[in-house]
Amino acid sequence: MTINILYFAWVKDKVGITEETIVPPQDIRTVLELINWLTERSEGHAAAFAKLDIVRAAIDQKHVSFDAMIRNAKEIAFFPPITGG
Amino acid sequence: MILVQNTAFEAGEELSNFCERNSRSGAITSFIGQVRNFLTDKKKASKSVHSLVLEHYSGMTEKELETIEQQALERWPINDILIIHRYGELGPGDPIVFVATAADHRTDAFESCQFLMDWLKTKAPFWKKEITDNGTEWVCAREKDNRLAKRWEKN
Predict the structure, then answer these.
(1) Which end of chain B lies in a sparser environment, N or C, as judged by fewer CB atoms within 10 Å?
(2) How confident is the model at residue B95 (pLDDT cuts 50, 70, 90)?
(3) Is residue A59 part of a domain?
């Protein structure tokens, strides 16, 4: 299953890329499991996900919590808490 | 109506046009959020901000704003809503966000406008980065914004 991963704001700065296409192992079912898997990819990924209380996630452009199931997600985004307005 | 745009806008002009096309509504409320000319972190307040860069999640931003707009229309008897939000680089004094609501009576106009801003602040995926003499820094989210947004949640 191919998923497009997007990064925004300082999460993007730490990972060092704006997006990447991944094929996670089949036993990865939740957003948290995906994060733990992504963390292994590079030091940048590890730095971005070092403090999970200040990271948020969206599946197919909808806010989700880390226990959300990935299922057939096409796009998963990681970003800091929102600071618009 | 929702406008997410890179180009600058003039808030006074937008409000004037909004009032004109809602001449049947007796109450108009508007809110403008603008770029302040000092740092949000008070410890570094002596440094002035050159500019503010707003990043957003194109696609999700529009969807979230449409959901928020729909929620307001379901909760209050309002006749019209306008939300304009900038992204890209902004200078001190530039408007970042403009929200206007039109209703028959003021309470609905006031409440819905406040609701729209409270939810926009915590749900619409925008991030601010301050450009100063010392470099660039992402703005931190405030816990107070979450509390303000939660008061509108239905049980």
Answers:
(1) C
(2) very high
(3) yes
Domain presence at residue A80: no
Contact check, Cβ <8 Å, B60/A58: yes
Give residue B25's pLDDT band: very low, low, confident or very high (50, 70, 90). Answer: very high
State the virtual CA torsion across B133, B135, B138, B139 in degrees, nearest 10.
Answer: -10
ipTM: 0.95
Flag whether pLDDT at A15 surpasses 80. yes
**Nearest-CA residue of chain A relative to B63?**
A61
Q: Within 10 Å of residue B70's Cβ, how many Cβ atoms?
A: 11
How far does chain B reach from its first CA to its final CA, in angstroms?
A: 28
- The CATH number linked to A27 is 3.10.20.30
Residue A35 lies in a domain: yes
CA distances to A2, A35, B32, B79 from B85, in Å? 33, 31, 10, 20
Q: Taking CB atoms and an 8 Å limit, are B125 and A6 in contact across chains?
A: no
- Count of domains in chain A? 1
> Residue B48 pLDDT > 80, yes or no?
no
Q: Is residue A82 part of a domain?
A: no
| Residue A42 lies in domain | 3-74
pLDDT tens digits for range B129-150:
999 888 899 999 998 999 999 9
Please give the pLDDT value at position B42: 58
Q: Is A18 on the interface with B (CB under 8 A)?
A: no
* Closest CA–CA distance from residue A9 to any residue of chain B (Å): 6
Choose among A13, A62, A83: nearest Cβ to B126: A83
Q: Quote the strand ranges of chain A, DSSP E.
A: 3-7, 19-22, 56-59, 62-64, 75-79
Residue A14 pLDDT exceeds 90: yes
